[in-house]
Design goal:
The complex is a heterodimer of chains A (154) and B (432). Chain A is of the alpha/beta class. Helix content of chain A is 32%, strand content 19%. Chain A is built from 4 helices and 5 strands, in the order E-H-E-H-E-E-H-E-H. In chain A, strand 1 (2-6), helix 1 and strand 2 form a beta-alpha-beta unit. In chain A, helix 1 (16-26) crosses helix 4 (127-146) and helix 2 (38-46) crosses helix 3 (92-101). Chain A is globular. Residues 82-88 and 149-154 of chain A have low confidence and may be disordered. Chain B has 432 residues and is α+β, with helices and mostly antiparallel strands. Chain B has a single domain (7-431), classed as Orthogonal Bundle (Cytochrome-c3 Hydrogenase, chain B). Helix content of chain B is 44%, strand content 18%. Chain B has helices spanning 45-50, 58-62, 70-84, 91-122, 127-133, 135-156, 176-180, 183-200, 243-246, 272-279, 285-293, 306-327, 376-394, 400-412, 418-421, and strands at residues 7-11, 22-28, 31-40, 165-166, 169-170, 215-218, 229-232, 237-238, 247-250, 259-262, 343-351, 354-362, 368-374, 424-431. In chain B, helix 5 (127-133) crosses helix 6 and helix 6 (135-156) packs across helix 8. The chains are: A alpha/beta (154), B alpha+beta (432). Chain A binds chain B through residues 8-11, 33-35, 37-40, 42-43, 82-90, 94, 97-98, 101-102, 119-123, and chain B through 13, 15-20, 41-42, 45-46, 48-49, 64-65, 67-68, 107, 111, 115-116, 126-128, 131-132, 135, 138-139, 142-143, 145-146, 149, 159-160, 419, 423.
Chain lengths: 154, 432
């Protein structure tokens, strides 16, 4: 399993993916921070050690209550997820959609989207997002314990 | 809506720019009555973060301002602080820093040309739609971007928020062998960049020329990255220390990011067009030759041809990277140990989008007392508004939808890095 967290620690809830990576690593589970733009994502999962089971964690804005944890199949992202609007230029959803069009998606891709509300520079992470990060970490950790042999060393 | 009535072109979210922002244009017939580039940002928070921190933290903190151009922020910060502390670096470190910037220019320009701007010219909504019909073109762009990222990763320790660049040098430098491993990819990138110049020159450019004041660094010997005097095509020729005497920042009600003008004059343009027009003679022969091949010669005043100018800079960055790698010898000391001493220093370096100004005041303990950061996109804001005021008037006979598309395309010519200048940009044009 290859676990990638995307975001920006300086922009409040956009730190969600990075925080998830840090907490997973603290539990001894390999996870990497990724820029979230197309070439970085595709390189991460189709590099030398091709990963077939990939999880991407990122903050999202869908209009759902803050702290909602969405889990999407990367092969079938909802339409709104590909709309523009990202603090890192090219949204993760767009990057995934581009990979799909270029036939460069991994066999299994799941996206954990954590609903955020606060993205201003220097803002704190919302308590709901902190809690959601923990929920995502526990879910992934539980899965990693059941399937430890596929862990991708980041 | 078409024809002679008033109308509003409104784009709530400007697509395919780094970050988000808003543009509002109001028209009465052919007359543009109002243009507002709204960029919403908590003002100047990074400058506030830096106060009280040790100067050694500035490269790490400022790198987080922008995900696409972290090296630009690190280089401007480092050069300003080194000036404040009167630190001299070795020629080898100087060369490495040019290579570092080459990496950023390659990945930033490749991203913009192919994924953010080319869709406009080809009538696609975005690069995803473009990829459905032209997959190999997009694959090429991704590989170019990856090559730029690989330079940044090797010199900076990682692609996002690089950690190796420091005041005084680098924490760790690559070996000659490590750099040589980049050569075959860079040779491919150079050939692909030449193709990019030729391909972009065949695109259909709206005819739109303005009398710009172009502002860029100029160095006596090289196409500028980290050093040089600040010059313009209207006689400006100053050291970075004089920047705040000659450029005025002001706040406009509709935007949280500040706008800039040349004192006593008005808006100005920074970025590839400015650099190309003011430094064409310093481009390597391979870049000058391909520019001549596609009839691109200074002064280029058509904003829309900036996509080809960026491609020429892609050629330059690949050629320069190969040159530096060919000449590189590891420095005897990767980093000089900087002192803790009081000082004030300014620096301007050429981010992919244009000049990036930093100033730091440091106390006896090496703590930052004050910091000022003026990103290129902030500096271009007023010029973008001025351009749209003229350009939108030319579109009076177009349908609202087409005029909106064209206005967005015009804004994207600047490759605005909204997350540097601010956080959100939405484009709105109203016809009344």
């Amino acid at each position: 399993m290859l676990i990638l967290g995307c975001g920006n620690r300086q922009r409040g809830d956009d730190a969600a993916g990075i925080l998830a990576v840090e907490r997973l690593r603290a539990l001894g589970i390999a996870a990497e921070v990724c820029a979230g733009e197309p070439s970085a994502l595709m390189e991460a999962w189709s590099g030398v050690d091709r990963a077939d089971d990939v999880i991407v964690i990122d903050a999202v804005v869908t209009g759902a209550p803050v702290g909602t944890v969405h889990v999407w199949d990367g092969q079938r992202l909802p339409a709104f997820a590909t709309a523009t609007g990202s603090t890192h230029g090219f949204g993760v959803a767009q990057a995934i959609e581009l990979a799909r069009v270029l036939d460069r998606l991994p066999a299994c891709l799941r996206v954990y989207g954590i609903e955020g509300k606060r993205f201003e520079i220097g803002s704190e992470v919302s308590p709901e997002v902190e809690q959601a990060v923990e929920e995502v970490v526990q879910r992934i950790a539980g899965e990693a314990k059941v399937r430890p042999e596929k862990s991708h060393d980041g | 809506m078409t024809g002679r009535g008033g109308r509003t072109i409104k784009v709530d979210t400007l697509a395919r720019v780094e970050g988000e922002g808003a543009l509002y244009i109001k028209m009465s017939g052919e007359r543009v009555s109002d243009v507002k580039l709204r960029i919403y940002e908590p003002p100047r928070l990074f400058e506030a973060f830096l106060r009280g921190r040790h100067y050694s933290e500035a490269p790490d903190i400022t790198a987080r301002i922008c995900g696409i151009c972290p090296i630009a922020y690190q280089m401007s910060a480092i050069h300003a602080i080194e000036r404040a502390l009167a630190i001299k670096i070795s020629p080898e470190v100087r060369l490495l820093r040019r290579l570092f910037y080459c990496g950023e220019w390659i990945e930033s320009h490749a991203l913009h040309i192919y994924m953010l701007h080319a869709p406009d010219f080809l009538g696609y909504q975005d690069v995803i739609e473009l990829a459905k019909d032209h997959g190999p073109v997009v694959e090429k762009a991704l590989r170019l971007k990856k090559i730029g990222n690989s330079i940044v990763h090797l010199l900076g320790g990682r692609e996002i928020h690089p950690i190796s660049a420091a005041v005084g040098g680098f924490h760790k430098v690559p070996s000659k062998r490590q750099l040589k491993e980049l050569v075959s990819d860079l040779e491919w990138a150079l050939e692909t960049s030449l193709e990019t110049v030729r391909w972009t020159s065949t695109l259909d450019f709206p005819h739109f020329e303005q009398d710009y004041e172009f502002v860029a660094l100029r160095h006596p010997e090289e196409y500028p990255f980290n050093e040089g005097r600040l010059v313009s095509n209207r006689g400006l020729d100053i050291d970075a220390a004089e920047y705040e005497d000659r450029f005025v920042e002001f706040h406009v009600k509709h935007s949280n990011a500040l706008q800039s003008i040349v004192r006593g004059r008005g808006s100005y343009l920074v970025g590839p067009l400015a650099r190309f027009n003011l430094n064409f003679d310093k481009l390597p022969e391979v870049a000058q030759k391909v520019a001549a091949e596609v009839d691109l010669k200074p002064p280029v005043k058509n904003l829309f041809r900036s996509i080809t100018v960026r491609a020429v800079e892609l050629v330059f960055a690949c050629a320069e990277a190969l040159r530096v790698i060919g000449e590189y010898e590891p420095p005897a000391e990767p980093r000089v140990a900087p002192p803790n001493r009081r000082g004030v220093g300014q620096a301007i370096t050429e981010a992919p989008r244009g000049i990036l100004y930093h100033r730091y005041a440091i106390d006896d303990n090496g703590l930052i007392v004050s910091a000022k950061i003026v990103p290129p996109t902030s500096q271009n804001q007023k010029r973008i508004e001025d351009d749209l005021r003229e350009f939108a008037a030319q579109l009076a006979a177009w349908s609202l939808e087409e005029a909106t598309w064209k206005c967005e395309q015009a804004v994207r010519c600047y490759d605005p890095c909204i997350s540097c200048a601010t956080h959100f940009l939405k484009v709105v044009v109203e016809r009344e």
